[in-house]
Amino acid sequence: MMLPAPRRGGQGQTRPRSGDHLRSLPTTLIRTTAMEEIEQPSRPGPREGLWAGVRDGMPFALAGLLVSVSFGVLAKPVLGVPATLVMSALVFAGSAQFAALAVLASGGGAVTAILAGVLLNLRFVPMGIAIAPSLRHGPVGRAVRGQALVDASWALANRGEGRFDIPALIGATGVQYATWLSGTIIGLAVGSALGDPKSLGLDAIFPAFFLGLLAAELRRPGTRVTSALGAAIALALTPVLPPGLPILAAALAAGVGRRR
Length: 260
Fold this sequence. Notes:
mainly alpha, two-stranded antiparallel ribbon, 13 helices, 2 strands, globular
């Protein structure tokens, strides 16, 4: 009589075969996990993000081209060619540049014009804080990439949950910077042919520009009262204060109101 073969694993138990643990999982769960791994999109590399930013920033760049042409035309009689080019190259902020130019064109001083531009650009402080966690570079690298921070690019590079696509930010800003500087040069070139900007009604761009900013703020529920009060303060103080000071007073009052 033949004896039965001994079982492996001891205690009368067989060793589990490879894959037995998967059979204990629901089939639906296995299929779902596999499909998630297959369908998960790959994160774009720096080059892809850069070109995506260029593509997305193009509409804003074309709009900025038109605005910068008008800035070059209006700034030439007030600042001259070199100062206008330097301002567009270094400041690169339409609202701040038009604010400073409006102060100087109305007879205000340089200090008042600079303060008006600084107050309008204070919005970049919280925007810079927001993108800081996405800047994984040294101090110099962070400072250089931070120069690409402009309104439209900040919004385009926002990926939600505090994440920002820095290559996309740089790409969107790069194309906008190129058209902004080019538009300023075009405005300086055609300004002489146009003659006095006031004869063409181009001086209306100053109030129209700031009315556009005001209208945008009035559409936001959280800023309606503050924006309306700032506009009222500027209108009330314009007849009694030197040029430029009403803008500063309105900006300071609006800033205090927003903090509260």
